[in-house]
Amino acid sequence: MTANTAPPKVPAVSGASGAPARPPRRVPASPARRSGWTPWLYLLPALVLLGGLLVYPIYQLGLISFLEYTQAQVSGGEPTTFQGFGNYATLFRDSQFWQVLLATVVFAAACVLATLFVGCALAVLLTRVRALPRLALMMAALGAWATPAITGSTVWVFLFDPDFGPVNKVLGLGDFSWTYGRYSAFALVLLEVLWCSFPFVMVTVYAGIRAIPTEVLEAASLDGASQWRIWRSVMAPMLRPILVVVTIQSVIWDFKVFTQIYVMTNGGGIAGQNLVLNVYAYQKAFASSQYSLGSAIGVVMLVILLAVTLVYLRLVRRQGEEL
């Protein structure tokens, strides 16, 4: 006789009160997780616009730099051929390119340092003068900032003109030509670039200084710290994010100066002694119809600016972590 065996019964898991436990329920996604894509939807129109204004031109710039693209190709007389890195090899073998690159780096560094020094000094001055002088200085600075580059350059050329300019008469320099010598021409352009660039630094740093709690500055002053010590040890560390922005902006603006050099030195000075990369690229692309070489110079400038910006941000972040 065979006995029927039933499968063993699994005991029900009871909760704390002895009732059978319910299976776990799926937790719905939080509203923050569900709305993770919402900010990107708001930014989508701006991203599409920036893509059309920035990404596509950069793509075309890089594409032309790898092609043989001269006036013959533009007019359709000859087919466009792929050169690879041939344009870059031609550019790097040109000794004038390295001279212009060195001059551009030195000139841009001098402009950035002068702009930051004058802008920060005047920003501190704005915090120590009364309302009326502060308003007059702000209006004068904003007027210089709003002046178009070609207008400001033309005015500065007239002011320093050897025959009719008032500067030579006041200084007693006679018929001294500022644009004849290489270094005097660069100095003249530097002054004009400084004149139209320091207001941005001044206004931005002044806004940052006003945001610093007055108790911190008063405590440093009561401890006997000098004004330079207060700026170096108190204000500058607290203004680091603002100083990063104005420094990067100044590097980008001053490294690709074009209008001031082109107008004030008549296209780069005598025998190209005052050329910078932007004017050099213009001469290669449009004066010589070597559009591929001009594009290659533009790509080199883009890479240099990206490298300088990334290195500077890395150094600033490292210093911030050490503080």
Task: Explain this structure.
- With 323 residues, the chain is mostly helical.
- The protein is 69% helix and 1% strand.
- It has a two-stranded antiparallel ribbon.
- It is globular, with a radius of gyration of 31 Å.
- The mean pLDDT is 86.
Quaternary status of these chains? single chain
Rounded to the nearest angstrom, the radius of gyration is 31 Å
Can you give the mean pLDDT?
A: 86
Estimated structural class: mainly alpha
Low-confidence stretches: none
Number of helices: 15
Order of strands, main sheet, comes to 1-2
Q: Give the CA-based shape.
A: globular
* Ends apart, CA distance between termini: 88 Å
- Strand percentage lies at under 5%
Number of strands: 2
Q: Element order, helices and strands?
A: HHEHEHHHHHHHHHHHH
Biggest sheet layout: 2 strands, antiparallel
Summarize this structure as a short list of keywords or feature phrases.
two-stranded antiparallel sheet, mainly alpha, globular
In short:
This protein has 15 helices and two strands. The chain is mainly α.
Write the layout of secondary structure elements.
Blueprint: H1 31-34, H2 38-65, E1 67-68, H3 71-74, E2 81-82, H4 86-92, H5 95-126, H6 131-146, H7 149-159, H8 166-171, H9 182-210, H10 214-222, H11 227-238, H12 240-255, H13 259-264, H14 277-287, H15 291-322
Antiparallel strand pairs: 1-2
Helix pairs in contact: 2-15, 4-15, 5-9, 5-12, 6-9, 7-9, 9-12, 10-11, 12-15, 14-15
